[in-house]
């Protein structure tokens, strides 16, 4: 059995040790450069640059999170993993922590690089209020990155099949949001995958929605439980009980 720090180091390395995960990181960087270039208009602000960089993170991080969650079972490495550390729950929790650390690092690097790019391209527009707006945008970028990646991790943990989990992580939330908006418009805001990320980006203590439409704690908790906590818990339970061959 290994210490937690060693397990965390191993899991951090495994988040990017496959060809697919490395290509996803390259894609995030390339698409990020493209979206920032498109944001570089005459009236562009630092916040616009940061918000533009959020697009590839929100679009591709769920796929990376699915790969992190399913790697043992899709590559048949589960036996080696759980023999070296038989306490499965410890590995699974550490894997989630490793993903959070990776997403945190990516978000910080993305925010800093886009801010530097804006300063280099538009030094005359760098003002205090612009920097504060960019800081807020960076916090919202991080909230979106964390929430979407943890949803991908939850779906991957639940299904333990990479192709199926990627399809579900991308299609089901959008389809459910659209379908519920048509069939049950009163219910739709409560089951939306975006409720938790919207609240996390601008947190407040009100149970209900704010006057400007930000989700309250109630909607955020339901969204978090439905799309992250419950599927992750069920997925962990499956992996703790599943036979390793």
- Radius of gyration using CA atoms only: 19 Å
Shape: globular
Number of strands: 0
Tally the helices: what do you get?
10
Span from first to last CA? 20 Å
Q: Please trace the helix and strand order, writing H or E for each element.
A: HHHHHHHHHH
Give the assembly state of these chains.
Answer: single chain
Name the helicity range: over 70%
- List unreliable stretches of 5+ residues: none
Strand content: under 5%
Average predicted confidence as pLDDT: 86
Tell me about the biggest sheet? Answer: none
Helix-strand makeup class: mainly alpha
- Provide the domain count: 1
What does the model show?
The protein has one domain (4-241). The chain has helices at residues 4-14, 19-39, 46-74, 78-84, 88-121, 128-159, 162-183, 188-191, 194-201, 217-241. With 245 residues, it is an all-alpha fold. It contains ten helices and no strands. The longest helix is centred in the middle third of the chain and has 34 residues, at 88-121. It is globular.
Task: For the structure shown, list the relevant keywords.
245 residues, mainly alpha, 79% helix, 0% strand, globular
Write the layout of secondary structure elements.
Elements: H1 4-14, H2 19-39, H3 46-74, H4 78-84, H5 88-121, H6 128-159, H7 162-183, H8 188-191, H9 194-201, H10 217-241
Task: Please sum up the structure shown.
Helix content is 79%, strand content 0%.
């Amino acid at each position: 059995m290994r210490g937690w720090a060693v397990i965390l180091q191993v899991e951090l390395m495994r988040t990017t040790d496959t060809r697919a995960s490395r290509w996803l990181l390259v894609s995030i960087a390339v698409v990020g450069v493209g979206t920032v270039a498109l944001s570089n208009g005459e009236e562009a602000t630092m916040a616009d640059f940061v918000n533009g960089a959020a697009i590839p993170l929100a679009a591709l991080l769920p796929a990376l999170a699915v790969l992190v969650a399913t790697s043992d079972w899709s590559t048949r490495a589960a036996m080696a993993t759980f023999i070296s550390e038989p306490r499965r729950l410890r590995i699974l929790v550490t894997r989630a922590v490793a993903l959070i650390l990776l997403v945190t690092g990516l978000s910080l690097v993305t925010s800093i690089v886009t801010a530097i790019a804006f300063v280099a391209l538009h030094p005359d527009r760098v003002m205090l209020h612009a920097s504060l707006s960019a800081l807020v945008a960076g916090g919202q970028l991080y909230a979106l990155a964390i929430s979407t990646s943890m949803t991908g991790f939850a779906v991957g943990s639940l299904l333990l099949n990479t192709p199926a989990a990627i399809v579900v992580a991308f299609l089901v939330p959008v389809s459910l949001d659209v379908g519920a908006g048509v069939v049950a418009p009163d219910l739709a805001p409560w089951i939306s995958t975006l409720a938790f990320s919207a609240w996390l980006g601008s947190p407040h203590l009100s149970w209900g929605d704010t006057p400007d439409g930000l989700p309250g704690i109630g909607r955020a908790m339901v969204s978090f439980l439905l799309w992250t906590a419950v599927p992750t818990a069920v997925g962990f339970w499956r992996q703790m009980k599943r036979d390793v061959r």
